[in-house]
Amino acid sequence: MSAQVKSGQIFMPAFTAAPISCIIRQDASGVNMNRKQTGFTLIELVVVITIIGILAAIALPRFAALQGDARLAKMNGAMGAVKSAAAMAHATLISRGFSSDYSDTGNTNATGIVIEGISVVYVHGYPNATTIVPLAGITSPDYVINGLTAVLTDPSAIAGADINHIGGATDCTISYTPPIASNTPPTYVVNANLINCS
Is the pTM of this model over 0.90? Predict the structure, then answer.
C-alpha cells in the first residue's frame, strides 16, 4: 500500500480522507509551548545533597584515621633508616680494621671515620645517639628532633613524627640506645601506634 498525495494532503488507502496535521500550542507571545522543560526539581536536588552529606560523614573519619596511619608508617620508616645506618656504621668500623666493640673516648671521633659527611662517634662498635640521627637522614622539619624532653614516654627518644597530633612532641617517637656493653647490639624502640600517632 502506498500513500497518494493530492493537492497538499496525504491520503492513505482504506482510510478516510482526513488530513494529517500537527497541533502546535503557542502562548500569547507566540512561543512554542510544546518545548520540554530542563533542569532539576527541588526534590532531586535535596536527594543528591543528602547523599553527598552521608558520603562525607562516612569519609571524614576514615580520612582522619589515614593521618594516624601515615605518621605510624613514617616512624616505622625512620626506624628502618636508623637500623640501616647503625649497621652501615658498624660495618664501616670493622672494615677499617677496628675492633667490633670499639668505643671513642668522650664525644670525639678518634677513628676519623666520616660517613656521608658525618663524623661518627662510636660506643661499643655502634654510633652514639647524637650521631645516628643525621646518619639515618632524620632531619627537621620532617621530624621533631629538638625539643624532645624527659616528659616523653621514652626519654631516649631521638625523633618524633610531628607536633600536629594528639601526643604532640611527647609521643609517636622512635628511640635508639647504643650498646651498654661489649658485643651487644643497640636497642631500638618504636613508641608509635595508631592511638598516640593520631
Answer: no
